[in-house]
Amino acid sequence: MSVKHALLALLEQQPMYGYQLRAEFEQRTGTTWPLNVGQVYTTLTRLERDGLAFADGEDGEGHVIYRITDAGRDEVATWFTTPVGRTQPPRDELAIKLALAVTVPGVDVGTVIQQQRSATMAALQDYTRLKRQAAAGAVPDAGADDGSGGADLAWSLVLDSLVFAAEAEIRWLDHCESRLRRAAAGGVGRRNARLDEEAPARGAR
Amino acid sequence: MSVKHALLALLEQQPMYGYQLRAEFEQRTGTTWPLNVGQVYTTLTRLERDGLAFADGEDGEGHVIYRITDAGRDEVATWFTTPVGRTQPPRDELAIKLALAVTVPGVDVGTVIQQQRSATMAALQDYTRLKRQAAAGAVPDAGADDGSGGADLAWSLVLDSLVFAAEAEIRWLDHCESRLRRAAAGGVGRRNARLDEEAPARGAR
DNA sequence: CCAGAGCATATACCGGGTATACATGTCCTA
DNA sequence: TAGGACATGTATACCCGGTATATGCTCTGG
């Protein structure tokens, strides 16, 4: 639901049309999560259906202008005041992959971990390179108002978020490696982590 | 695509029926990501459509047994050997929320951050509590094979992944707070972060 | 005997996300 | 100046992930 609420928050700031909403969104999140235009319009349709926004005619250039409603303003307020994530974290593909790699025989978990670490470290370098670019491109000192409304700061914070997540991923991979080594050395769970055949038939019932 | 590949990996280990696949999946990921049964069957249908698995009659109890194909085995192999995430990381709702909170006037970013930190720390405590339970429930020393096939180890690693992610989130929130404080003190971007009205009209064109 | 619970399969439905169609306007250039 | 490339702008078709629900079945306890 993040796109829906993000669009609502932008509409709260100012009435806008679809294409403009995409531009504003991407100005704040940069190249991280390019927003497909189609999704903007479908989301706007749903927002109108749910009474959170409505198309309010056209401006001078023929753009369909959307406005937020009072219900929409309430929705934005609750979105900002309600923390996210405590219920069900989104499925983590890497965690699922490793959980399967550990339990399914015939998979070399060590290689999976090593390759993933390399890829994540490469991504980390990309992020730091992007951060350098962003720092260079930013206005060194915009006295009163540079017109960006802090969009470059937001984009920088998003980048930091990716960096922190990638670093945590690498730490977790190291942690998995050492735990697997310990398990292989000790008595418990010395199977898997190497290709050993003949899995016992163990159904659910 | 993580569910699709996870089911394929399970089918590579052994032919199974739908309900059994869900049980095997949840045994490895615990209560983290409960898998809806319906998704299993729709995914199986798609797997059959794409030639990665096929329904191979019934077993004694009348269960529809699915088998993996050679193409499916290839798919699993490439899944395990190809790292994940370098292309487009999944949308992070929290990052989007904060990016919007920073750029949209009238939002108290400090409160958003503080509330989120509290919620994340609560989740962190839940995770460590679950880890204690898992450690207590695990077989202390299963000499040869406890029949779980390392499912408890996988579930424990998944939990660790959640812990690492939550810790990184908290670190990022602290980082955001200090950056915002610095921005508020310095010259650049002293707007936002406080409710100041009268946003200048700045459209995309 | 039957009410409820767990097992098992299947389908309807919605939201997220991508690709694509289509139309307009602008700008560059052969 | 005609035309091609390109950005702007809106809209729709389509697939996949995810949830809820319908429908049987078996087993068990009161």
Automatic annotation (TrEMBL), chains A, B:
Domain of life the protein comes from: Bacteria
Protein name: PadR family transcriptional regulator
Organism: Nocardioides albidus
Classification via Gene3D superfamilies: Winged helix-like DNA-binding domain superfamily/Winged helix DNA-binding domain (1.10.10.10)
Domain Transcription regulator PadR C-terminal residue range list: 91-180
Transcription regulator PadR N-terminal domain span: 7-77
InterPro entries attached to this UniProt entry: Tscrpt_reg_PadR_C, Tscrpt_reg_PadR_N, WH-like_DNA-bd_sf, WH_DNA-bd_sf
